[in-house]
Amino acid sequence: MNKRGKASVRLGILGGAALLFLVVFIYFIKLQVGKYDLDSMNNPPLNAQQVSRIGLLEAYKTWSGGSATFLDLRPNSAFTRTHIPGAISIPAEELESLYLKLPDDRTIITYCDYPLEESSAQAALFLITRGFPNTMPLRGGIEGWIQSGYPIEP
């Protein structure tokens, strides 16, 4: 076989290898997309109403044991007036830019002013979807905490 013949054979082998690589790559991508579709069917996205709340008594026990971080989502002025002792203040509108400062190895309990805890549920959902799976809004908010007679600062 002459030089041209050998070059043609090499080119054919390289082309076949490239085609095989392309087929395997496309197959792999299809598997990943299918896996994602299957995962999303088994775990549909949450909305704020579906986020599990933590009751006041359970939250108080968690607070007493020091095993959770309490996240106050109210404006700084409200936090300064009164808050759960040891709570971290991150106003809801600043959460997106500051959430990475939260510890990711602890339960996070979010709370706000409103007994229906909509803001804290939205914040909990935000944190859950960003790698903080043990996040729950406080049922009854700070008002429920105060009415239950649990400690507050200042």
Give your account of this protein's structure.
The chain has six helices and four strands; from the N terminus they run ααβαβαβαβα. The chain is α/β, with parallel strands linked by helices. Mean pLDDT is 83; it is low at 34-41. It has a four-stranded parallel β-sheet with strand order 2-1-3-4, with helices on both faces.
**Morphology call:** rod-shaped
Tally of discrete structural domains: 2
Query: What's the total number of strands?
Result: 4
- Give the biggest beta sheet: 4 strands, parallel
Summarize the structure.
The chain has 6 helices and 4 strands.
Descriptors for this entry?
single chain, alpha/beta, Oxidized Rhodanese, domain 1, 4-stranded parallel β-sheet
Please render the helix and strand layout as text.
Elements: H1 3-42, H2 56-65, E1 68-72, H3 76-81, E2 88-89, H4 95-98, E3 107-111, H5 118-128, E4 135-137, H6 141-147
Parallel strand pairs: 1-2, 1-3, 3-4
